[in-house]
Design goal:
The structure is a single chain. By secondary structure, the chain is mostly helical. Helix content is 67%, strand content 0%. The longest helix has 16 residues.
Length: 73
């Protein structure tokens, strides 16, 4: 099985309708949190993705929460 990157996961989620919904955001969150930490690369990736606003409101709230908590820790 090939190892996916965070970018691969985001592209796959965007492929159907160009937006990330709450359920797809949960998959991305689990991908990010799989090792228990949010790396600097993952933080930068999330910031860039959130700036591009490819998320519905619930997905935006979910993933911005991950980013916020990672900066507090």
């Amino acid at each position: 099985m090939a190892q996916w990157s965070l970018e691969d996961a985001l592209k796959e989620c965007l492929a159907d309708d160009g937006k990330i919904d709450k359920y797809e955001a949960r998959v991305i969150r689990e991908f990010i949190m799989a090792d228990g930490i949010v790396s600097e690369d993952e933080k930068r990736f999330l910031e860039k993705a959130l700036e591009n606003n490819n998320f519905d409101d619930q997905a935006m709230e979910l993933l911005s929460g991950v980013l916020l908590r990672s900066k507090q820790g």
